[in-house]
Specification:
CATH architecture of the largest domain in chain A: Roll
Strand content of chain A: over 45%
CATH class of the largest domain in chain A: Alpha Beta
Oligomer: heterodimer
Number of strands of chain B: 5
Largest interface: A-B, 30 and 21 residues
CATH topology of the largest domain in chain A: DNA Polymerase III, Chain A, domain 2
Largest sheet of chain B: 5 strands, parallel
CATH class of the largest domain in chain B: Alpha Beta
Shape of chain B: elongated
Radius of gyration of chain A: 25 Å
Strand order of the largest sheet of chain A: 6-2-3-4-15-14-13-10
Number of helices of chain B: 15
CATH superfamily of the largest domain in chain A: DNA Polymerase III, subunit A, domain 2
Helix content of chain B: 40-55%
């Protein structure tokens, strides 16, 4: 392997992949970055087996080849190199590389590329195409609802479902649920579904750009692949059945209201300041043409009245303030519809006039005095 | 290492190969047997056979990418769990459970090898129970233990138990010759006194100066101990009490030594001795002790070994032993 590259390009690629590399991995080879040169492109791969990130940059190739270089050295080394052309030259018959910059040289010992875990090849063709900014926003809208409880692994993931032209993401931690639909341009013949770890989707959201350029998503038996022109992210899937979430989404409501998102969000956050430590619940009173947000504790009381359209029966309901704030923030809409089924059963939040998103929130028990 | 290349344990290896060949590997195994008998080695070879993409008659091919990754401990679907400090903690087990819920990375299977599984804390063991009973398809858990009686019965009942028996001295010497460069007479001696556990023999051969060097140091500690003063006994104890493993090795050699003295005293012939090459010395030493004294010494050493295994302070235990031995004469 022999190639010439610029420092900014190398830095860009190393920064992209190093998030997936753990310098303390039990597998020695995974403490490194895989360098592979094919044609005039250099592919850098980092992996902790759960998340694999591959980034490719253009280089001036002399000979093709591959090597795994330990992240501990390569990342800091490249960062501290001067901004002049850098040449990588692997020594045939060994697992070392010589890096030449100007008249100086440095050599690093690495691992055989053959030892590096190989991702299974993609068999299902092109998969689906979604603009990057859309995917980023969709992920933001559901990821907050992912559970951190490792004892129930399926809830630490996001259900990704493709059926016909509909692309859907669902996340729930059993106290709340977020669901986002996206209409695809092309129809998919075979419906597919998979549970992808929330942690790796967080990385996908971080690495995708704010552009309309498309990202392709392919769901394979054991992996999900997200790829753009210069980036490929692979995530392992969580084995198991996602629970039948559709059953828990209520269809009939006793009370509906339509209010300004900003107002109710600010009111909730202010009210939560007075809420009891360890049980941060806020009371919502829905009455004719207004929604009252209030808290009364030993610390004092607060009451905010937000005008809005209320249909149906008047109702008093308590919500966990943090859960409510997170749900409101994920709505991405100026106005919201809050639909209630009773003081102790699920509430549904939707952006006004947008059917593609909903989030469901279970109320809290009224605090005992 | 391939299953076919292993020495001994023929029955177990045949059963494992059949399981791979017929694709009927159990989801959970317990490899029980004395320390150093080859349980982990077999488990890793079995893991290689399970993960190999071109298995040959139920065994790893040894050439494919998966096999080479296993050999270099780089296979992403082969996980090893070892005690962190004195026990396997619940956090470690939770991490394993998380990995189990993910689909395999490279192939169709994930293999987990839990070494010294009897050191799981009770919480850790209970946490593993549900998954051990019914892990996701393609998961194989191999629990390893030289003290299976210390495992929860609920763990054992969920595993297919394979009990490893000590090897014959000839088999141990084959392994010793393969993995160490110990001289022939040392190989012969070690294979006899390893108790059929090649791992133990390899460890003894690997100490500084080889087994003979180690024995020499231990004999110097034992020699004339029964006539030593209290201060001298404590000084000698300090030499081996720094590290628990060293202390255990020392006790092991002491046991063999005093056993030889006793056998020599009773029979007067070298045939039944482990340290046959030192017969004149043994014969001389044996005359110093009475039969009762030797029996008492051996009992003391065994008691100290049990205390050490039960986590008694190493230094105090060794000092106690040496003081008793010094008083034995």
């Amino acid at each position: 392997m022999k190639f010439n590259a610029s420092k900014p390009a190398l830095m860009h690629a190393i920064n992209a992949v190093q998030k997936a590399v753990s310098p303390r991995s039990p597998l020695p080879v995974l403490t490194g970055i895989l360098f592979e040169v094919t044609g005039n492109r250099l592919y850098l791969t980092g992996s902790d087996t759960e998340l694999t990130i591959q980034c490719n940059i253009e280089v001036e190739t002399e000979t093709e080849g591959a090597i795994v270089l330990p992240i501990r050295y390569i990342s800091d080394l490249v960062r501290s190199l001067p901004d002049i052309p850098i040449q990588f030259n692997s020594i045939p018959g060994s697992t070392s590389v010589i890096i030449t910059y100007g008249t100086s040289q440095v050599s690093i010992h690495g691992y055989e590329p053959e030892q590096y875990p190989r991702l299974p090849s993609i068999n299902r063709g092109t998969g689906i195409q979604v603009p990057q900014d859309e995917l980023k926003e969709m992920l933001r809208q559901v990821l907050f609802a992912v559970s951190n409880d490792e004892t129930r692994p399926v809830f630490t993931g996001v259900l990704m479902q493709v059926d016909g032209k509909q692309f859907r993401l669902v996340a729930t931690d059993t106290y709340r649920l977020a669901m986002k639909n996206y209409q695809l341009e092309e129809e998919i013949e075979q419906p597919v579904r998979a549970i992808i770890p929330g942690k790796t989707l967080g990385e996908v959201a971080r690495l995708t750009g704010n552009t309309e350029e498309k990202i392709s998503i392919i769901l394979e038996e054991n992996h999900a692949f997200f790829s753009t022109a210069d980036l490929k992210i692979a995530s392992r899937l969580i084995a198991g059945q996602y629970p039948p979430y559709e059953q828990v989404i209520p269809r009939e409501f006793v009370t509906r209201t339509r209010v300004t998102t900003r107002e109710i969000m600010d009111a909730t956050e202010r009210a939560s300041l007075l809420a009891r430590d360890g049980y941060p619940v806020v009371k919502f009173t829905l009455q004719e043409n207004s929604c009252v947000v209030s808290v009364q504790t030993q610390a004092g009381w607060i009451r905010e009245e937000i005008s809005g359209l209320v249909e149906g029966e008047p109702l008093e309901i308590w919500f966990n303030a943090r859960y409510m704030s997170e749900s409101l923030r994920a709505l991405n809409s100026d106005e919201l519809c809050l639909e209630l089924t009773g003081p102790l059963s699920a509430a549904v939040l939707r952006p006004a006039g947008d059917d593609s998103y909903l989030s469901l929130l279970l109320p809290a028990k009224p605090p005992k005095d | 290492m391939k299953l076919a290349d292993l020495t001994g344990h023929e029955e177990i290896i045949r059963a494992l190969r059949r399981a791979v060949e017929q694709n009927r590997a159990s989801h959970a195994y317990l490899f029980a047997g004395p320390e150093g008998v080859g349980k982990t080695t077999t488990a890793l070879a079995f893991g290689a056979a399970l993960l190999c993409r071109n298995p040959e008659q139920g065994d790893a091919c040894g050439r494919c990418r998966d096999c080479r990754q296993v050999a270099a401990r780089n296979h992403p679907d082969l996980h090893r769990l070892v005690p962190e400090g004195a026990s396997i903690k619940i956090g470690q087990v939770r991490e394993v459970l998380r990995l189990i819920t993910l689909s395999p990375f490279q192939g169709q299977r994930q293999v987990f090898v839990v070494e010294q599984s009897d050191l799981m804390t009770q919480e850790a063991a209970n946490c593993l129970l549900k998954t051990l009973e019914e892990p996701p398809a393609g998961t194989v858990l191999i629990l390893i233990s030289d003290r299976p009686h210390a495992l929860l019965p609920t763990i054992i009942s969920r595993c297919q138990v394979l009990t490893f028996q000590p090897l014959l001295p000839e088999q141990v010497s084959v392994i010793l010759k393969r993995v160490t460069d110990a001289p022939d007479e040392e190989v012969e001696l070690l294979s006899r006194l390893s108790g059929g556990c090649p791992g133990r023999a390899v460890r003894l051969a690997g100490t500084e100066g080889g087994y003979f060097g180690l024995r020499q140091r231990m004999l110097e500690l034992a020699a004339g101990l029964n006539r030593a003063s209290l201060a001298e006994a404590l000084q000698r104890a300090a030499a081996v009490a720094g590290d628990k493993e060293d202390a255990l090795t020392c006790l092991e050699l002491f046991l063999l030594w005093y056993r030889d003295l006793l056998v020599c005293k009773e029979t007067g012939t070298p045939e039944l001795l482990f340290n046959r090459d030192l017969f004149p010395l043994i014969d001389r030493e044996a005359r110093i002790y009475s039969r009762g004294q030797l029996l008492r010494v051996i009992k003391e050493i065994e008691k100290t070994r049990d205390s050490l295994l039960a986590n008694v302070n190493t230094r105090l235990a060794m000092e106690m032993l040496f003081m008793r031995l010094a008083g034995a004469g």
